[in-house]
Design goal:
This protein has about 220 residues and is of the alpha+beta class. The chain is built from nine helices and five strands. About 10% of the residues have low confidence.
Length: about 220
């Protein structure tokens, strides 16, 4: 078995994997599901997917691994909720609530470390740039965010939200973007991580009725 690769922070890596026996199993539906699952995994892992290509029997991912940073308890839990769902997520939520009631800080840290030790490492994804670290660097941050998509489309998206919250399906229709997974990976996720937009209901991130609003930072971009 190949030894795990040691990933160095603040570097880009080319990740690739192939189906066993070179079988051609990845059709259109499978490739769509691959992207839909990869985006939450990338967000959870704090690793940025710069580009990807999913073929019929293998895939390529260009990933950037940022330097680790301290995450608040709320951010760790928010990232966890994008990856888990159903009874497994409910079990984690019950366990966390019990720890909060107990007041045992050490046990809370051990609980969170179960998730944070899988972050900042492409081997935990097989994976997103430090949007959250740029809180006070708005002038420098915006060009880098918009470089990862179309500047015009990204600004149009912010302008749409300036009139009030919208669901992704509504925004896609107004921007004439058909592919929901592409739209989420290319615009919604990085702009949400950067603090330009935010979900209206943070407890229902996967709901089809989830809407996004413009944040004060997003309004500053438009001004």
């Amino acid at each position: 078995m190949r030894r795990p690769r040691d990933f160095v922070p603040d570097r880009c890596y080319h990740l690739t994997s192939r189906i066993a026996n070179r079988a051609f199993y990845l059709g259109e539906d499978e490739r769509t599901r691959f992207v839909a699952r990869a985006c939450p995994a990338a967000y959870f892992s704090c690793v940025e997917v710069l580009a990807y290509c999913v073929m019929s029997n293998h895939f390529h991912i260009l990933a950037y691994i940022p330097a680790p940073r301290d995450l608040s308890e709320e951010e760790v839990l928010a990232r966890m909720r994008t990856l888990y769902f159903g009874e497994k997520l409910a079990g984690f939520e019950r366990g966390w609530a019990a720890l909060v009631r107990s007041g045992d800080v050490e046990r809370r840290m051990r609980f969170l470390s179960r998730f944070t030790r899988r972050m900042w490492n492409a081997s935990g994804f097989m994976k997103r740039r430090r949007w959250g670290e740029m809180e006070d660097a708005v002038p420098d941050m915006i060009p880098r965010i918009l470089d990862h998509g179309s500047r015009r489309i990204a600004r149009d998206l912010l302008a749409i939200l300036a009139d009030g919250p919208r669901r992704p399906s509504e925004m896609r229709g107004m921007l004439e973007i058909a592919n929901a997974n592409y739209f989420t990976a290319r615009y919604i996720t990085p702009m949400k991580e950067s603090g330009l937009i935010a979900p209206v209901n943070a407890t229902s991130l996967h709901s089809p009725w989830q809407a996004y609003r413009l944040t004060p930072k997003g309004r500053k971009v438009l001004s």
